[in-house]
Amino acid sequence: MMGGMDAMVSEPDRAVSFAKGHGTGNDFVVLPDPDGALALTPEFVAAVCDRRFGVGGDGVLRVVRTAAHPEVAHRAAEAEWFMDYWNSDGSLAAMCGNGVRVYSRYLVESGLAEGPTVTVLTRAGVVVAEVGAEVAVSMPLPSVGGRGTADVGGVIFTGTAATCGNPNLVCPVADLDTLSLDAVPRLDTMQFPESANVEFVVLAKDDVPGADLHVAMRVIERGSGETLSCGSGACAVAAVALAGGLGTDPLTEGTVAIDVPGGRVTVSVSPDRCVLSGPAVLVATGEIDLASLRA
Ligand SMILES: N[C@@H](CCC[C@H](N)C(=O)O)C(=O)O
Q1: Beta carbons of 172 and 148 less than 8 angstroms apart
Q2: Binding residue per annotation — 221?
Q3: Is residue 151 within 8 Å of residue 172, measured between CB atoms?
Q4: N or C: which end of the chain has fewer CB within 10 A?
Q5: Is the residue at 77 inside a domain?
Q6: Complex prediction ipTM
Q7: Is the pLDDT of residue 1 over 80?
Q8: Is 90 exceeded by the pLDDT of residue 7?
Q9: Under DSSP, is residue 45 helix (H, G, I), strand (E, B) or coil?
Q10: Residue 255 CB less than 6 A away from ligand 1
Q11: How far apart are CA 22 and CA 14, in angstroms?
Q12: CATH number of the CATH domain containing 121
């Protein structure tokens, strides 16, 4: 009888194929599962994402046909592929902007989609990616909310709530380098019943050609801890920055260059569109040996 990690696949398979990719250092284990044969569990995802005992990653992207996933099969007419996204702690999230960019790169490089335009269903709705030297994706339109606070290891940060398919709190800070971001943020559970990603942001001193604003950010992601980049968080930051949340004159639309610890992404926001662009690459393929993976 199979149990634990073995329950992930049917006998006699003891291995699960994977690819590894990242978008500006936000890294993912990609699990190709077109026909929905894998029964992912939070424990399996956490074990795969473990950086010492597993493959290592900020999350898992299961590549599954929409028609083959019971949660979304009724939406198969909207997009052939569903991004089944999991955070590294095994929790599910509705949106992952860098994840969509890596997912789309994988679809095209593996031949599962022709490209360069790729339509993907996420738990936050359908998004469309353009896969080229970089990958640009049309994200859910960010919505800027009210003020809120985050307690990070006893230090209180104040910011502005913003959603982009998932909840965020965008906190302007004086300096990014001196922040200690090891603790899990404590947030107002009334304002953020499902917690949130917390972004820490400064205005950069120099201009970037083609951008209306240039900022730098770090992020503590819900379910993954501090990561080197967060695409949906970057969109939330752009929306808050354009609304004047960093002290600049409000703009109804514009382009924001956002430096993250893993590189730079660009977000263009207008009243009816939000596009996240940046590098997204695949760096490895391999097989996960289920018998050796820590349960
Ligand atoms: N890294 C992602 C966001 C992943 C989900 C997030 N941790 C959450 O729980 O909302 C991105 O690039 O958007």
Answers
A1: no
A2: yes
A3: no
A4: N
A5: yes
A6: 0.99
A7: no
A8: no
A9: helix
A10: no
A11: 26
A12: 3.10.310.10
